[in-house]
């Protein structure tokens, strides 16, 4: 079935869902569009259907790594990342790595993350105004935490930040750059893993190296793939999510002031900011139908690509009353920003913590927080899985 419509859609406002989502939710819950690669994909937009696609094993993640398979992000063919595996391989990997991301371990990081967020915002206060939200907090907070988790020397941050920036581009013109960046990061992580085996350390990467269950272990390719996943999701997703959350609040001074006066509301408010966020778009959720499936009277054939639109599902009025509104105390809030089913994000608890503590530090330390430039002057990145402005100058 030919189509002239291409995805991703370009929103009129980068902080709001594309207008097309409302029409899809209302009139066309299963719609055919083209990807930048020219591949066709079925967009699934309603909350109930997105949950179904995310959880139904007839929609395969692993199949997108096959040679010639439709894909939106530049995944390696045959990737052994847990991000793109189906059971039973996914179940095996999840079992092996879950201990490294246990709730107790993440909670134990809380004091360190809070101190880091406070120190970063204090440095912004000393150097500004204006101070850049991205360089001052949104990048260094998650990337420092990931360095701590993986045991990566912080002096190497700029190198792997540059590699992962390129690797998460879906611009077809950058394919060679993507391959080169992946190779450079692979060589770096290989050396790091070898060094840890020679001199064991106390960090998540060492835990993954040692992880075993009845003699089963992660092989080197699986360790490398996990390193890619942590760097990409743990850094880029949180950086963009924090930027989107702060920009959303800056547009709403009354909400900003309410959170300053009621910091105990932050955990619930973070869930609503995640629901409302357009930082990621769920571009990595692409799947391939393994057999014929019917959704809303639409026949999805075996081999067809299917993309559950998480950001559209988070706007479904059947689940979220007044979905366009930011309701800081919205409960319940069954948003799908961290996915659903077996691929629910392992780092969800950490991501929530970083958003809560980062926003909390800004509110405490920078009274009168506001943009230092007109919002229209912000320069947004394009062609990346996680969108954000290059810089966000703040005043207070």
Concise structural overview:
With 396 residues, the protein is α+β, with helices and mostly antiparallel strands. The chain has 15 helices and 12 strands. α8 crosses α9, α11 runs parallel beside α15 and α13 crosses α15.
Main attributes?
15 helices, alpha+beta, five-stranded mixed β-sheet, globular, about 400 residues, Cytochrome p450, three-stranded antiparallel β-sheet
Describe the structure.
It comes from Streptomyces auratus AGR0001. Belongs to the cytochrome P450 family. InterPro entries: Cyt_P450, Cyt_P450_B, Cyt_P450_CS, Cyt_P450_sf. This is Cytochrome P450. Keywords: Heme, Iron, Metal-binding, Monooxygenase, Oxidoreductase. By secondary structure, this protein is α+β, with helices and mostly antiparallel strands. The protein has one domain (19-395): Cytochrome P450 (Cytochrome p450). The chain is 46% helix and 9% strand. It has 15 helices and twelve strands. It has helices at 19-27, 47-55, 89-97, 103-108, 110-127, 133-138, 140-150, 157-167, 175-198, 204-210, 220-250, 253-261, 266-276, 310-313, 348-365; strands spanning 30-34, 40-44, 59-60, 131-132, 212-213, 216-217, 287-289, 293-295, 298-300, 305-308, 370-371, 393-395. It has a five-stranded mixed sheet with strand order 1-2-10-7-3. Strands 4-12-11 form a three-stranded antiparallel sheet. A two-stranded antiparallel sheet has the order 5-6. Strand 8 (293-295) and strand 9 form a beta hairpin. The radius of gyration is 21 Å and the shape is globular. The mean pLDDT is 89.
């Amino acid at each position: 079935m030919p189509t002239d419509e291409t995805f991703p859609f370009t929103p009129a406002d980068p902080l709001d869902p594309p207008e097309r989502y409302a029409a899809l939710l209302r009139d066309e819950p299963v719609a055919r569009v083209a990807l930048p690669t020219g591949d066709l994909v079925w967009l699934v937009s309603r909350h109930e259907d997105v949950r179904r696609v995310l959880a139904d094993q007839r929609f395969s993640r692993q199949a997108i790594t096959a040679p010639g398979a439709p894909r939106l992000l530049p995944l390696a063919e045959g990737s052994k990342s847990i991000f793109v595996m189906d059971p039973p391989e996914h179940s095996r990997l999840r079992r092996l790595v879950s201990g490294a991301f246990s709730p107790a371990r993440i909670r134990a990081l809380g004091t360190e993350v809070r101190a880091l967020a406070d120190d970063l915002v204090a440095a912004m206060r000393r150097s500004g105004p204006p101070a850049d939200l991205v360089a001052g907090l949104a990048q260094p907070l998650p990337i420092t935490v990931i360095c701590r988790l993986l045991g990566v020397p912080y002096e190497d941050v700029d190198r792997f930040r540059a590699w992962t920036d390129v690797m998460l581009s879906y611009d077809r013109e950058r394919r060679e750059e993507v391959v080169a960046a992946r190779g450079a990061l692979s060589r770096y992580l290989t050396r790091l893993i070898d060094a840890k085996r020679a001199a064991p350390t106390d960090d998540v990467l060492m835990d993954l190296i040692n992880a075993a269950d009845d003699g089963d272990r992660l092989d080197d390719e699986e360790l490398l793939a996990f390193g890619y996943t942590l760097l990409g999701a743990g850094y880029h997703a949180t950086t963009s999510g924090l930027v989107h959350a702060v920009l959303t609040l800056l547009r709403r001074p009354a909400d900003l002031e309410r959170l300053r006066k009621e910091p105990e509301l932050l955990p619930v408010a973070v869930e609503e900011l995640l629901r409302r966020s357009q930082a990621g778009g769920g571009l990595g959720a692409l799947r391939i139908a393994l057999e014929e499936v019917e959704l809303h009277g639409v026949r999805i054939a075996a081999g067809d690509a299917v993309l559950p639109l998480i950001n559209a599902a988070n706007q479904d009025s059947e689940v979220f009353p007044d979905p366009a509104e930011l309701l800081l105390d919205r409960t319940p809030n069954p948003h799908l920003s961290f996915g659903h089913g077996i691929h629910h994000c392992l780092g969800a608890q950490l991501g929530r913590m970083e958003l809560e503590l980062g926003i909390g530090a800004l509110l405490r330390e920078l009274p009168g927080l506001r943009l230092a430039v007109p919002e229209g002057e912000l320069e947004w990145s394009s062609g990346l899985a996680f969108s954000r402005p290059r810089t966000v100058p703040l005043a207070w």
